[in-house]
Design goal:
The complex is a heterodimer of chains A (about 675) and B (about 375).
Chain A lengths: L1 H13 L5 H17 L1 H23 L14 H14 L4 H45 L1 H16 L3 H31 L1 H16 L6 H8 L3 H25 L3 H9 L4 H12 L1 H21 L7 H11 L3 H30 L12 H21 L14 H16 L8 H22 L2 H15 L2 H16 L3 H31 L1 H16 L6 H8 L3 H25 L3 H9 L4 H12 L1 H21 L7 H12 L2 H22 L11
Chain B lengths: L21 E10 L16 H8 L2 E11 L4 E5 L6 H8 L7 E6 L2 E2 L5 H11 E4 L11 H5 L1 H6 L3 H14 L15 H14 L4 E5 L7 H18 L2 E6 L2 H7 L2 E6 L2 E6 L1 H6 L4 H6 L5 H4 L2 H4 L13 E2 L5 H11 L3 E5 L2 E6 L1 H8 L5 H5 L1
Parallel strand pairs in B: 3-8, 3-9, 6-7, 7-8, 11-12
Antiparallel strand pairs in B: 1-2, 1-4, 4-5, 9-10, 12-13
Classes of the chains: A mainly alpha (about 675), B alpha/beta (about 375).
């Protein structure tokens, strides 16, 4: 309240008044601009609200944390409902005739794929997938596929890899079908789009971890739950991109098609779908990537396969084992991403001219089938169905030795720079702990007010309301303390991520060489499932909050770097040129032209950084970062759904709040209407 | 020399008994809330700005009536925002007119159901678009065959037909390319071939050459002129380019703010502008290349009926100047052996100077 008035009064006075008349003229206009500035107005309103409410709140519920009187204990009803589900899972009709069928279908599907993969044997699968990659994406990707599958085998991970593949196949198919249908609805109907969009946008920012609990509650631990959680997590990008692709179709082309007298169906099949094919493919790609990262996380609820191996290894802090299981995941991700990426590039290009006729069209496909069949039979005849034991290399030993070496040499006591353990300890002592204590020490209404102010300044009153409500919900659920703990981890990691990301991004935007060097690294980093990052950091930082922060930073960094670099490089070159022609120095160009013009991209980078960091910090529960992530894990492990669900909801609320606080709403452009 | 296509003489026998291809009466297209209430209400008389302020509506087409005769090139010209593109879309109800009547060959288009309307679009009127509207994932050949595919024609047959069209528009050798690999002019040739492939009764062009470079534009205009000469297909041609309108149009309809300002032959538009707006519009047109000696001539004196070079009434003033300059004396305007009048230095110069209105008559 008082802030605005004092500012408007002091500012003109402090302004250098070399010219008295000008200053006199400027005074009322400055006041007017201050009053008319939306930022100041919003802050003023908030200040008034705060001035009224805070004394009330303080008088009634003084103290730092969320007042106990304002919490609602939901564990009772939650336990009751979870007990009810446990009691009725085998008898109630909704389980027998609805969830039961879904669960059965998933189990059958996964089993069929798994048996098929086993029947093909390691030779058949390797040959088939390699040839498939060759047909779809060319020789280079085929070689990558071959090598990757071989590595999976050599690491002794063939069977879990096949299990993960089977799970993925079912989950991705279901995600693509469901997401595609939702996207179709959203792409063709304005109403459906309006309903879907906010839901999908929100689902995309929530950490994968949050989806596990409700699924477990209904389906219990096991493959069906894992697949379902994966579908819930992986279908939204497909739906979103399908809808956007269908809606973004060139209106001129659609009009031309209509002018030729096409029916609704002809328009859809011959124009709308083909025009959206890039987005559809991108959707499938994203779905696969998200499914892969979720398939691993889902091992916590019994998904089996590679994720399970990583999970087991992490819980016994066996870095070697974790790496052996993590590497195949990374390779699968890279292979699938490359295959679809190249296939997408090829879609746009005209069919290759020349080359043998046998290498094109159905003869080639038939050839692929025949060769695969032959190799399969040969593999069967030679005996081994799974990867032959003689062809494996145990890397656990060497890796663990290496880890020991790291622990011995850079973990601690390195002169001058200190070891990673010291870094971790310092990070905890000087950054995380003060921040956590600060957050837990601020009165609860103070945090609500800060959240409201941030969300309102960057968005609309609606976003402010959502963010504040989400934050309040956390308090009401009685998980204020652990949430503040998680929040402190997120904030600290985000700050580090942004500082590093902006610095590297700006540098990369200005240096073509660095950009060229970074690009392949970023490509690989962005395809890796979040889970994977936990493996190396455990080796470096042991367990606790520090490795979670490190993993989160490493996971979020590529996206931040990329968005920043792109944003700065996309700055209108003529604006930059005109600044240069006026004699601006490099620093001036950066500060006065590039950064201001790249503001939307930088804001997006902040948003992405926050969302990604949160996702990993929560998973950090696996490596002992405590707080909400641990609660979820504890709930899952102990069957204590009440604790887990409450923590899961708190994670969702935290995600919502962080997204709303950092997501600038696109201002409606009236001019275009 | 610029006008390779001499404008058809204004009084070329207008076959009144033939039904017009398009017959439009009192057509309105209003965008905005409760648009259907505007036509016929007092608001209809308001200016565009007032209408928007009062009702929130924009009248893109205002009370337009005209006929398109079979075989003619009917040009609709106006600046951007004058409603011409909306108008041409209304002709096949790609945009639904708000009110008015619309007939194609005497058949009421407004009364057609979906199937009939589709049939109309498939067989009777094909459109060429400013931004081509080609399908980027299909080859040139398949783009051209697309209209036939929609009609349900078999693959071999439609490809054969499309191959014919490829040749007709001069794209031989590019059949397997994708639209993205073609230049703008080539892409528009594909658009033209796609429209021609369905053998429509009337071709609708929506500013087809506006996005092209001037030289390519000229090529494409010649192409259209050639096609029109070969096939005598009816064309409705939308443009904002006056010289294009004058080059192509048998008749030109000038639009402004959704309404008609003037309909007439190029000569009428240039020679007798309906109002100041049109006069302003055609000010820079080289009059001698549009106006004909019919407009410039004066009655022959008795001694002039035999001597001097003979010109047809459709000769442009520019050509007549050359003839008169060569012979040194007046030239006769002869139609079917009969001398209609003569043109001399004074007549021709007054046309060039823009004095051929009342002043010339008074002189």
């Amino acid at each position: 309240m008082s802030a605005t008035t004092t500012r408007s009064r002091t500012d003109p006075d402090t302004a250098p008044s070399a010219d008295n008349t000008a200053a006199a003229e400027a005074r009322p206009s400055l006041l007017r601009t201050l009053v008319s500035s939306p930022t100041v107005r919003k802050l003023a309103v908030l200040a008034v609200i705060a001035a009224v409410l805070i004394p009330l709140a303080h008088a009634k519920w003084a103290g730092a944390g969320w007042p106990h009187a304002l919490t609602v204990d939901v564990s009772g009803p939650l336990e009751k409902s979870s007990d009810w589900i446990l009691d009725n899972r085998d008898s109630h009709w909704i389980f027998l005739y609805f969830f039961g069928h879904i669960s059965q279908a998933i189990i059958t599907g996964v089993r069929v794929v798994y048996i098929a993969l086993l029947a093909l044997g390691w030779a058949g699968v390797t040959a088939g997938l390699t040839l498939l990659a060759w047909r779809v994406a060319g020789v280079r990707v085929a070689v990558t596929t071959l090598v990757s599958l071989a590595v999976c085998g050599v690491l002794g991970m063939w069977v879990p890899t096949m299990q993960t593949l089977a799970l993925m196949a079912v989950a991705v198919t279901a995600s693509v079908v469901i997401g595609g249908l939702l996207g179709l609805a959203g792409g063709l109907s304005e109403l459906a789009f309006r309903v879907l969009r906010p839901v999908l946008d929100t689902m995309q920012v929530l950490p994968a971890f949050a989806y596990l609990l409700p699924v477990v509650m209904i389906f219990g631990n096991g493959v069906p739950g894992a697949v379902l959680a994966t579908v819930i997590y992986a279908a939204p990008p497909m739906a979103r991109l399908t809808a956007l692709g269908l809606r973004g179709a060139d209106a001129g082309v659609l009009e031309a098609v209509a002018s030729l007298g096409a029916t609704w169906r002809q328009r859809l099949l011959s124009a709308r779908f083909p025009l959206a094919r890039k987005e559809l493919l991108l959707g499938i790609n994203q779905t696969i990537m998200m499914a892969l990262s979720m398939a691993v996380i889902a091992s916590v609820i019994g998904g089996g396969g590679l994720g399970d191996r990583v999970y087991q290894a992490l819980s016994s802090v066996d870095v070697g084992k974790a790496l052996a299981a993590g590497l195949p995941i990374v390779l699968l991700a890279v292979v699938m991403d490359r295959t679809i990426g190249v296939a997408g590039e090829r879609l746009g290009a005209p069919p290759a001219e020349g080359g043998s006729r046998l290498l094109r069209g159905w003869p080639a496909w038939a050839g692929v089938a025949v060769i695969t069949a032959v190799i399969t039979v040969a593999g069967r005849l030679s005996g081994s169905q799974t990867w032959p034991g003689g062809l494996t290399v145990a890397i656990e030993g060497p890796v663990n030795q290496f880890k020991e070496w790291i622990v011995d040499h850079i973990y601690t006591g390195v002169p001058v720079v200190g070891g990673t353990a010291e870094w971790a300890a310092n990070y905890l002592k000087w950054v995380l702990d003060p921040l956590r204590e600060g957050l837990q020490g601020i009165p609860w209404y103070g945090i609500l007010l800060i959240v409201a102010a941030l969300a309102w300044l960057i968005g609309t009153w609606a976003t402010a309301l959502t963010a504040t409500a989400a934050m309040a919900a956390i308090g009401v659920l009685g998980v204020w303390e652990p949430s503040m703990d998680t929040l402190s981890q997120v904030l600290a990691a985000v700050v580090v991520t942004l500082v590093l990301g902006f610095a590297i991004g700006i540098w990369a935007a200005r240096s073509a060489r660095l950009e060229r060097m970074l690009r392949p690294v970023l490509d690989v980093c962005q395809t890796m499932p979040q889970f994977v990052y936990l493996i190396p950091v455990v080796a470096l930082f042991d367990v606790g909050r520090a490795p979670a922060a490190a993993a989160a930073i490493v996971y979020a960094l590529p996206a931040v770097i990329r968005i920043t670099a792109q944003g700065i490089r996309n700055v209108d070159p003529s604006a930059l040129e005109s600044a240069r022609s006026l004699g601006a120095t490099q620093g001036q160009q950066l500060r006065q032209v590039q950064l201001p013009l790249a503001r939307p991209a930088l804001l997006l980078a902040v948003n992405q950084g926050v969302v990604l960091v949160l996702a990993v910090v929560v998973i950090g529960g696996l490596v002992g970062s405590g707080a909400l992530g641990y609660d979820v894990l504890f709930g899952l492990a102990q069957g204590d759904l009440a604790t887990g669900l409450v923590a899961g909801v708190a994670i969702v609320c935290l995600g919502l709040m962080l997204d709303r606080v950092t997501q600038p709403t696109a201002r409606r452009d009236r001019k275009g209407a | 020399m610029a006008t390779t296509l001499a404008p058809e003489t204004p009084d070329s026998p207008k076959t009144g008994d033939r039904t017009p291809v398009f017959s439009v009466r009192d057509m309105w297209k209003v965008f905005g809330p409760k648009a259907d209430r505007v036509p016929g209400s007092p608001d209809a008389e308001l200016s565009a700005a007032d209408l928007r302020a009062r009702t929130g509506c924009t009248a893109a087409v205002r009370d337009v009536s005209f006929d398109v005769e079979p075989g003619e090139v009917f040009v609709v010209m106006g600046l951007s925002g004058s409603g011409k593109s909306t108008l041409v879309r209304c002709l096949t109800r790609l945009i639904e007119p708000t009110s008015g009547t619309l007939k194609i060959d005497g058949e009421d288009v407004m009364a057609m159901d979906k199937a009939r309307l589709r049939d109309l679009r498939r067989h009777r009127a094909a459109m060429v678009f400013q931004h081509f509207g080609l399908l980027p994932h299909r080859s040139v050949l398949d783009n051209i065959a697309y209209g036939l595919e929609i009609q349900g024609m078999g693959k071999a047959e439609r490809r054969a037909k499309a191959a014919e069209m490829v040749e007709k528009v001069g794209l031989t050798g590019l059949e397997r390319r994708r639209p993205g690999q073609l230049s703008g002019g080539q892409q528009q040739r594909v658009g033209l071939a796609r429209a021609l492939a369905v053998d429509p009764e009337v071709l609708l062009f929506d500013e087809p050459f506006s996005a092209l470079d001037p030289l390519i534009r000229r090529d494409m205009q010649e192409e259209v002129i050639r096609l029109h000469h070969e096939e005598r297909r009816t064309m409705v041609f939308i443009t904002h380019d006056l010289s294009e309108a004058l080059r192509l149009g048998d008749r030109i309809m000038l639009m402004r703010d959704g309404g008609i300002v003037q309909i007439g032959t190029p000569e009428e538009i240039v020679g007798s502008p309906a109002d100041e707006y049109v006069r302003d519009f055609v000010r820079d047109v080289p009059r001698e290349q549009v106006l004909t000696v019919r407009r410039a001539m004066r009655p022959a004196k008795s001694d002039e009926e035999d001597g001097g070079p003979a010109l047809t009434p459709g000769t442009t003033v520019a050509d007549a100047i050359e003839a008169v300059a060569r012979s040194g004396g007046p030239a006769r305007v002869v139609d079917g052996g009969r001398c209609l009048g003569v043109v001399d230095h004074a007549c021709l110069l007054s046309v060039v100077a823009g004095l051929d209105g009342k002043e010339a008559a008074a002189a």
